Amino acid sequence: MAAVSQTYLSVSLVELVSERIFRPASPGISMNKTILITGASSGIGKTAAKLFHEKGWNVVATMRSPHDEEDLVDLEHVLVTRLDVTDHASIDAAVAAGIQRFGRIDVLLNNAGYGAYGPLEAFTIGQIERQFDTNVIGLLAATKAVLPHFRANRSGTIVNISSIGGQMTFPLGTLYHGTKFAVEGLSEALHYELEAFGVKMKIVEPGMIDTEFGGRSFEFALDETMTEYLPTVAGMQRAMGAFAANRSQPEVVADVIWQAVTDGTSTLRYRAGADAVALLDRRKVQDDETFIGGIKAQMEV
């Protein structure tokens, strides 16, 4: 894809990571457990960073613009550093920095992502690539970057933030749902191959959350000359207003992430939010015609 170039670790970085993987941490390095979080500048990522810090963990809080961060930079045992999931060199550097600072990484929280909604025709190929580069390729790149460390330690946990949108769909969500269905599938497949060396795979599926998903983490494309789509757009606006009225706070998701990391089980999927439980229960028991018909009824189209 055009927005992402394949980047490999330099020799010096390989040496640094290998040294930290195979050599015991120096006495000055904290032996508390460490979580690396992508997309920690706001919303679920920042809330999870604060929760794990309060629980006594080391936190590698990564984001595209760390110089703009104010809340996390002064916290003890928190490393704020740059990571852009579409820049593979920045992923490798952030992982190496976390290992260098804290001695090891125990958990990767793949949280970075955004939602692109609108008629498929209204998106450029570049916008399509950006959605998949961020939500899927970037997640895979971050996962791949920590796996040698986890494999050498024969332990670790990866938590992938999916969505109810990885199990069901809303109209106009072709791109977003496509990425989240991909996250569900790749996570389930990884569950098999990683458990052989002690690494746990977890999927967290939030419902509607009160975060910036509706702001800078959201992209809507519409060409109003394509009038055939306008009734669907209007219907979605009506339906989403109702869904948003019942949205949960990001602390709800952070608590579920904490549970997934610490419950000691091999559970794969965790729902976050009362709406997520209700909608996914309904999707599980209803056939396609019934469930999709219910969504259309809420849209009044």
Q: Can you tag this structure with a few keywords?
A:
alpha/beta, Rossmann fold, seven-stranded parallel β-sheet, 9 helices, 9 strands, disordered N terminus
Termini separation: 36 Å
Compute the gyration radius: what is it?
Answer: 20 Å
Average of per-residue pLDDT values: 89
CATH level-two architecture: 3-Layer(aba) Sandwich
Helix content: 40-55%
- The secondary-structure element order is HEHEEHEEHEHEEHHEHH
Count of runs of 4 or more consecutive helical residues: 9
What name does the CATH topology carry? Rossmann fold
How are the strands of the biggest sheet laid out side by side? 3-2-1-4-6-7-9
How many strands?
9
When the domains are counted, the total is 1
Assign the CATH class: Alpha Beta
Beta-strand content bin: 5-15%
Low-confidence stretches: 1-28
Please identify the structural class as seen in this structure.
alpha/beta
General form: globular
Largest sheet descriptor: 7 strands, parallel
